[in-house]
Amino acid sequence: MQEIDKLISFDGRDIRLKVGLLAPQAGGAVLIESGETAVLVTATQSTPRAGIDFLPLLVDYEERLYAAGRIPGGFLRREGRPPERATLVSRLIDRPMRPLFPAWMRNDIQIVATTLSMDHDVPPDVLAATGASIATLLAKIPFYGPMAAVRVGLIGDDFIINPTYKEIEDGDLDLIVAGSPDGVIMIEAGANQLPEQDIIEAIDFGYEVVRDIIQAQKDLMAELGIEPVILPLPEEDPTLADFLADKATDGIKAVLQQFELAKPERDEKLDALKAEIGVQIAELAEDDPISIAVAEDSKAFGNAYKSLTKKLMRAQILEEGVRVDGRKLDQVRPISCRTQVLPNRVHGTGLFNRGLTQVMSVVTLGTPGDAQMTDDLHPDDEKRYLHHYNFPPYSVGETRPMRSPGRREVGHGALAERALLPVLPSMADFPYVIRVVSEVLSSNGSTSMGSVCGSTLSLMDAGVPLSKPVSGAAMGLIKEGDEVRILTDIQGIEDFLGDMDFKVAGTDSGITALQMDMKITGLPMETIAEAINQARPARLHILSKMMEAINSPRAELSPYAPRLLTFKINPEMIGMVIGPGGKQIKSITEETGAKVDIADDGTITVSSIDGAAAERAQALIEAITFKPSAGDVYVGKVTRIIPIGAFVEYRPGKEGMIHISQLADYRVNKVEDEVNLGEEVLIKIREIDGRGRVNLTRLNIHPDEAAKAREAAGLPPE
Question: Which contacts qualify for 162-171: CB closer than 8 Å, 24 or more apart?
């Protein structure tokens, strides 16, 4: 392919496309650049795979630390398992791309995005997503694109396209909009409690730029002479579908209209009906067209039964405005909430139930040393708030091997984390590292928003001073032609057989997080705005139920949570606290049982379940770093007496000597005539000699100085 450089200019940073330069054996490849960030994106497909009934799409986002001039940490000094942020970017690419491939394709498709160079101004994620569309078009893979993605920030009252990391941090919005020629197809956002209208305007603002980038992709393909590849709908023999429509329609309708059925009972009845039809098919002659169709494709019957169920469920909503559980379109399922579910050994718990969905969130409060250090290309290398989401098989009544968290689990945890970040206290106000684990104990849709609600309950139960509680609801969509119905609080079947999963989280003041995924090729702004606005009363209703369980953070932390003392020392003295080979700090922790974390700026955090132990550790550190000054007045204890004077410990571990001539303003014959061993005495630092020795005196101490020293020592005034 010929080398082509193309510049896309819009309101924000320009994007440069280089085609035909790299990866010549990939199906399609583009180097997409902005600023000094460059991402290579490739797309390759294989021949159709037999025996599967799904689109085998694989999306990988790879980070190379050389892109930022860094060598990886760890023993191997090379990149290993993708960090969490890389997994999230892979999902960010996959989610808008997947609906744009023909659902009946059975070719393996692999999209690989690799960040080769990166500055700290331009995030690579939206470049990778847009590059995936370009690479797919270049590879001539059947695709209902182009697709493009942009980020929208908000600084003051102004929207910004593709803001820098600093602008994202300083602003009130971090919104990613991906779209196709048919409309918006994916949204991912974190916001600082913004009103619904601001979010709607931001999405619209971003989609305007998305359309410009889509047109630029069309122009590039025309310049290269590449025509979009569109596969025609495969011809299907309607015999099996017609048979099922005749035999199963009434039965499926009857089950879907038994609104009192819980999910397990409904699934059981649908499976029983499916088994009955299966028996009827098995009794047909071997040369019957239906028997032949089922024999040729073992999944044909199951897929046809699912398609009929989907059609009837959607028709019931579109034509009758009634859902499978009898709810109205904008009605939320029954909700119950509890806190203090587990014994006090855990720091905080919240149990959230919405219908058959049940999520238990558990909080652990840690010290600054528990923060997660990241080894990726993002400028932030430390996380003090961690949200982890677990989805065990028993939550949906299944048995399967337990594995490490997959992309879905990582994504749901990140969404809940993003929803709660805007309301967490600052490190200065609450110097704890916070970890929340959301355990999905039962799932019937919207577990990610259940995690948001359960986590809010658990954080308040733990005594974390949230500025406001956060709730969330998942919105769905049924669209057939021009007929559109938006559903509030979707359950599993409506997510599985519907067209949209739109999660909205926020406080009573505004939105903190959004995530929208589509199964169709795009939505107009009017429908998106309607879904966002319809989510607000649902969120507030859920929030009111949560407040019945706990309406404010508890005043006291769990007795098992660590007590933290934070103070600062001169950074030049960090080495003194640590000591040779860590000897000094080790002795402090062994003596007190407290944990000590030291930051580069000299901030020291001492933590212990026992508050007295933390105070003792602080006193020891302050004694090590203390620098006395001439004129300071203290109450100290006499530790030794010698013929020419007495030694006084005026600070923990700090001693000075009072010469016999400084014990009184008259001649003293014997030291013991003025002071005794163990006696508390008022002293002033007279001088510090050239060898660092501290010389003390009991003379010339002003009454005000004496009063302050006695108060500091916890003694009553004389």
Answer: 162/12, 162/13, 162/34, 162/122, 162/123, 162/126, 164/120, 164/121, 164/122, 165/120, 165/121, 165/123, 165/378, 165/379, 166/121, 168/123
Average pLDDT score over residue span 634-657? 90
The residues with which 45 forms a beta bridge, in sequence order, are 109
Compute the distance between CA of residue 37 and CA of residue 68 in angstroms, rounded to an integer: 9
- Identify which of 418, 528, 535 has the alpha carbon closest to the alpha carbon of residue 179: 528
Calpha distance 301→276 (Å, rounded): 12
- Helix or strand or coil: residue 695? strand
434 strand-pairing partners: 365, 385
Neighbour-count burial of 316, counting CB atoms closer than 10 A to its CB (0-12 exposed, 13-18 middle, 19+ buried) = middle
**Which of these, 4, 522, 545, 454, lies nearest to 224 by C-alpha position?**
4
| Rounded distance between C-alpha atoms, residue 149 and residue 214, angstroms | 9
Are 199 and 174 spatial neighbours (Cβ–Cβ below 8 Å)? Answer: no
Burial of 250 from C-beta contacts in 10 A (0-12 / 13-18 / 19+): exposed
Read off the pLDDT of residues 230-274 as tens digits, 9 standing for 90 and up.
888 888 888 999 999 999 999 999 999 999 998 999 999 999 999
Helix axes 239-256, 289-296, angle to 10 degrees: 80
Please report the beta strands in 254-356, taking only residues with DSSP state E, as ranges in sequence order.
335-339, 348-354
Count CB neighbours of 295 within 10 A: 10
| 528 has a pLDDT exceeding 70 | yes
d(CA 106, CA 520): 18
Q: List phi, psi (to 5°) of 49.
A: -100, 135
Q: Give the pLDDT band (50/70/90) at residue 19.
A: very high
Say what the pLDDT of residue 12 is: 65
Q: What is the pLDDT of residue 690?
A: 82
**If you average pLDDT over residues 161-180, what whole number do you get?**
95
Q: What's phi and psi for 40, nearest 5 deg?
A: -90, 125
pTM over 0.70: yes
Strands in 507-590 per DSSP E: 511-518, 563-568
Within 13 Å and on the Cβ side, how many CA atoms surround 32? 30
Q: How do residues 566-612 score in pLDDT, each as one tens digit? A: 888 888 889 988 988 888 899 899 989 889 999 888 999 998 888 88
- The answer to whether 102 and 142 have CB atoms below 8 angstroms apart is yes
Q: Give the Cα separation of 520 and 535 in Å (integer).
A: 21
Task: Judge contact between 631 and 684, C-beta under 8 A.
Answer: yes
Show the tokens assigned to 352.
């959230």
Note the residue count of the chain: 718
Local confidence band at 133 (pLDDT 50, 70, 90 cut-offs): very high
Residue 309 vs residues 37, 267, 455, 497: alpha-carbon distances, Å: 48, 11, 35, 9
Q: How large is the angle between the packed helices 196-224 and 125-138, nearest 10 degrees? A: 30
Q: pLDDT tens digits for 383-396?
A: 999 999 999 999 99
